[in-house]
Amino acid sequence: MNITILFPLYNEDIKIAKKALDSILRQSFSDFLIYITLDNPDNNELELLVKKYQLKDSRIIFRKNKRNRGLAETLNLMLMNVTTKYVARM
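Structure (tokenized):
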């Protein structure tokens, strides 16, 4: 893989999150990983959505914070797992 896409979620509208994921997955370039971290451990709706996508596409890596950490800390934690040369942010 060449690119890791960091995609943190918190309380986004389910339709918007779905559109964003669909947009990433429809790209003509396919050599990427998507790291999705849910920063709201109580948001079951977003968790279920991501897990459904994860079953369909092995490039999706999902993680859920045990507590809300905020955007900056969540992104920093996500960056610690990146092994690719390039990083993109959704």
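Residues 44-56 form the longest helix (13 residues). The radius of gyration is 12 Å.
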